[in-house]
Amino acid sequence: MNRKARCSYGNGFFHVMVQGINKRYIFEKDIDKEEYLSLLLRYKEKFKITLLAYCIMDNHAHLLIYTDEIYEMSRYMRMVNSIFAKDYNKATGRVGYVFRDRFNSQYIYNKDYLLKCLKYIHMNPVKANIVDKPEEYSYSTYSNFLKKDGIINDEVIIKIFGDVNNYLERFMNISNEEIEVMDIDREQENFMVAVRNYLKNNKINLETIKKEKKMLKDFCNSLIIEKQYKQIQMADLLKCDVKKIYYIIKKIKETKSSPSKKRKK
Predict the structure, then answer these.
(1) Structural domain ending residue among the three candidates 150, 172, 194
(2) Domain count of the chain?
């Protein structure tokens, strides 16, 4: 079932995941983890990204991001991943794709989900049996929250918890019950099923949709506004800039919200 409160455009919190192609261990060495983290930190100001939390594992990484413009996040991730991929291929003497996809993301639609996501990200090394306690893992922000250092400052804390008073107590007390699975893979599979059903029901193909403005508008309206899938998924599917999808959705919403002209009697 699709969540109804998904962001269609604009600002918001996102759980982002990147993964090595064929689940390759692209971050297996410490130097690789350190380079990827360095790139994340280097470009976050350029694209006005607030990096709230991260955990870099051996074959994937989880990020908690706040952005004022969703297409800036797309540009940010493309920049970071492309530079890392180029350096990784050069260092390992290989060619071809390094990441499974450009990146996958989930919009975080309420405070409870935000806190669960924070817990989920930091518990990754424990679930993978790499460490016994999350604070023992070097490549996550768990210890930064405990010490309030690194990227964890008042701005980050206020964005997540609302204020800085007693934040540490609330951070430590995030429920240890079964964490909601942030199943990005399943969501992408559901998106592709929805795409195939749309194409089949409308007896059309993607190439035709790309060429016809009205068809593209109807396609975006059905999958993004009605079924609540993400603009980034649509941009990846159509191999276009997410900013193009952003403006299509914005135009659809403006048209729907404008009052219809009444016929004068």
Answers:
(1) 172
(2) 2
